[in-house]
Design a protein that fits this description.
alpha/beta, 126 residues, four-stranded mixed β-sheet, 2,3-Dihydroxybiphenyl 1,2-Dioxygenase, domain 1, single chain, globular, 8 strands, 15% helix
């Protein structure tokens, strides 16, 4: 197999209520989320560097159903210190499932549940 730079190339987080989810992710990242149609559905693009990073989106479309806290787990980039993002989760309508936790010599992670019932991770170096 060839060596690749990133294990993931794109990800999509399913949502039930697009406007509610867009508001949630916009608030926790302090970011105005661009949106675009996806067939009969809708996609909201999460913050990322299109030229150098792995991106993802929230998606409301047929066949996209949040899997609660038991499905695949996506870690979003928490920036320099994920605590900044994590501190906004509750007031934006989500729930912190695990606070900022150190991974020795690697950084930190945390988990939250979004407004749609998805378990999502955050990761940061600091």
């Amino acid at each position: 197999m060839e060596t690749v730079t990133h294990a993931a190339s794109w990800f999509e987080i399913p949502v039930i209520d697009f406007e509610r989810a867009k508001k949630f992710y916009s608030r926790i990242f302090d970011y105005e989320m661009p949106e675009m149609p996806m067939g009969a559905g809708m996609m909201g693009i999460l913050p990322h560097d299109r030229d150098n990073g792995v991106g993802g989106a929230i998606v409301k479309a047929d066949g996209y159903v949040p899997t609660s806290t038991a499905g695949s787990l996506v870690y979003l980039n928490g920036g320099a210190n994920l605590q900044t993002v994590l501190d906004r989760v509750t007031s934006a309508g989500g729930k912190v499932l695990q606070g900022k936790t150190e991974i020795p010599s690697m950084g930190h992670y945390a988990f939250f549940a979004d407004t749609e019932g998805n378990k999502v991770g955050l990761y940061s170096m600091g």
